[in-house]
Amino acid sequence: MSKKVILIEDERNIIEAISFILSRDGWEVKTHSNGHDAIEAVRAGRPDLVILDVMLPGKSGFDILQEIRGDAGLAATPVLMLTARGQDKDREMAERVGASRYMTKPFSNAEVLDAVRDLVAR
Amino acid sequence: MVESSMIGSRIRERRVMNGLKQSELAKRAGISPSYLNLIEHNRRRIAGKTLNRLADVLGVSPGLLSEGAEATLIAALREAAARAEAGATPGENPGGGEGAETDRTEEFAGRFPGWARLLADLDRQRDELEATVKALTDRLAHDPQLAASLHEVISTVTAIRSTASILADTKPLEPEWQSRFHRNINEDSQRLAEGAEALVRYLEEAPDARSDIKSPQDELHAFLEANGFHFPALEGAGGAARIGSVIARAEHLETAAARGLARDALEGYVRDARRLPLPEIGQALAECGPDPAAIAARTRADMAGVFRRLAMLPEDLTGPVGLVICDLSGTVILRKPVLGFSMPRSAAACALWPLYQVLSQPGAPLRLRLKQGDARVLALAVSDAAGPARFDSPALYRPHMLLLPDPGEGATGPAREVGITCQVCPLASCEARREPSILGGGF
Known about the structure:
heterodimer, A: alpha/beta, five-stranded parallel beta sheet, B: alpha+beta, 6 strands
């Protein structure tokens, strides 16, 4: 059975591109495009991995990550954070709230794929 | 070493400057050369007649010889030396040399006052420039407009890179996917072009540029100002249908974002005009003058709506009327300056404005005279709800502040002294200050 990934990102064409490369690699991809009710989508989807953008409408990725880590059923789920902000303080913040990995835009498809495979295989 | 003990050094310095030999000065001052030699090496303290005679021959005031350099100059030199030492790499002397001879600061200032003053001035300028660079760097790092533009550009680049990579690397790629990704790249490249253009325009117009247009909000304000905040085409029946043509003809609305803001603003204008049509408010103005409370009572319109309507009518009907509206975060979203009362373009305004006072008391209007530099105005403030009350979201109030000519102290009491925004506010002691002012002695 294929592993499940939830991609929480608000840029439609990034969603389409990442969904495509992950689907072709055998992952079952679900997407969600706002921060407001992202935690509900993660709870409902029970994914093997969450790919989470930092700047989302409604709620920041950092807040959503905190909610994931605070939920006993989801706390162990690996989370790959994506952001257009490469500043050190954002990286520190991601580490502090429990990101499994942090990737700065613009990234390559191969980097995303490698990170996803690596995080789920652990 | 105390200043008075340096009189000898100053006498020697002056004598050399005047091209006098020690014996010549001694003779003209009526003292022996050996005594002058002791004085010049600070081994004899002098005052009174001897000091006066030496000063007379040297052509300076006795005070200059006895008091030496100003204490402030000496303090400035010591600060410069301390700063240089603090900024130097540990184990190295500033400038790679011996370091400043801080134990001889007073002697240096006394013997070379011009150089000393120059050094102190350069150090002060360096200090101010460093503070300015830091403040500008901070501002750039926290500028929401710049951050939003960069985020947009980087996200679009990411989408293009990812999509292009799929098109190049996926073999075979079904035609429908190919077509979809080509379309996505086309869309994103257009977005990227617009985003890059906006970014370049913003950066080109940063500090040194003279253009007033920087952000979509600036474009909106340029558009509103160019129209005197009044749109005759939108008055009367069918005004909403004419919004599109007003925007299409606008010269100042260059970006899609600004046109979107203008549409929202003009839709609000039409709603206000519908609630308080021109003939009705014209009649109320003729009877009550630009008195929002009287107009609201007479027309049964809400106070904030009356504020907006008054500010958007021609000045020959209302007299000078200014308006500021902010949102719940305190960000100014509409500004119509008047009567010399200045408003910041992008920074947060002065926390002492009654605009912010009504944030904590929605619905309760406030009237206050304000003094901002030479400007005097009467400010009327009220906060209204931006939409209907809902249980699932916070109440979004929009404080309004109407500005009218100052009626004088008799009408509403003394004026409150306010600023524009902290960064350019000269008020020295202000409890509401949140950051230093760039006026006066630097940051």
